[in-house]
Amino acid sequence: MNFTQTLQHELGIIRQAGLLRELRRVEGPQGTHLRVGGGELLNFSSNDYLGLANHPAVREAARAAVEQFGAGSGASRLICGSLAPHHELEEALAAFKGTPAALTFGSGFATALGVITALLGAHDVVILDKLAHACMVDAARQSGAQLRIFRHNDLNHLEDLLTWADTRRQAADAARTAPVRILVATESLFSMDGDLAPLRELVELKDRYGAWLMLDEAHATGLFGPGRRGLAEAAGVSDRVEIQMGTLGKALGSAGGFIAGPADLRDFLLNRARSFIFSTAPVPAAAAAARAAIAVVAGPEGEERCAALWAHAAQLRAAVQAAGFDRGVAGPIFPLVLGDEDRAVRAAARLREAGFLVPAVRYPAVGRGQARLRATLTASHTAEEVARLAAWLPQISG
pTM of this prediction? Predict the structure, then answer.
């Protein structure tokens, strides 16, 4: 087969498995109502949890940055692209997260890839939660470290793997070979199941074995804790998490990823994280927008928006439980697991016909046979809009 025939054959296999994906063009800004295909859909698909992507202060910050700094950054930050908005954002992130320093990347995926491959090599061990995001999985594989997976939120299984890794480290120490570093990596709020990591217990366990923890707070930043810094703050363990990871494109309404932690971590990544060193710096408008969003999140309006989001979540949670979909979610992410891929696609299509955008999520984003609709809430939704979606849940489950 020639090149085109090969692609057509592979696409046929994807289509036959019910896994074909297509882009859906949206006309207009991100929000609770989207213009799609000439019509309007009530949007329950976004990770813009606090409704900041179209917030006036965030938009104005982006506009002002374009006026002052232009549309692009020109090069990687180590060449000529380390513009003032990037530094100001990192200072704001460090203050918000309560860490000495922070470093931003072009995306969350690039963040995980840069950090894990910089820190670990063939002599080391990385232990991932089974449901950790694909960016962590790919980064662990590319690092060359020994990769082990523990059953989702199963601390007993994690301890078994930490015991194995510690034995390996002791053997290396006795043989005076390269020291073995042990990294545990997990999400705090899991993106597809909506549940939380048992963070206090996990921190106790990794400390007991001298491991490091990389905590992906992508979906928890802005939502948890008295300062809305994330689950680490809510659990009171921020100072015991070596690497706090997050994204700027969810509750912060912009784009990009970041690491917060010790100043030495920032300096090390500046010199070793290839996805940082060899990438053109993010556009200044995105950095300025994220900085403005942090100010909103950390202030009284952030508290009000977060309270509105939790009220919507409690409202939908009751309906989800009544419809038989309950999976112990603890945030604004509601997985409506249907199992069969085609069934999930058909359910999403029915909801679109009814005026809702709720995406079907299929393998490889979730395991085979675990296809689902993934409904997400934002502070910008109204109680009436949430009730409209809730009324449709029994028809989806039936």
Answer: 0.95
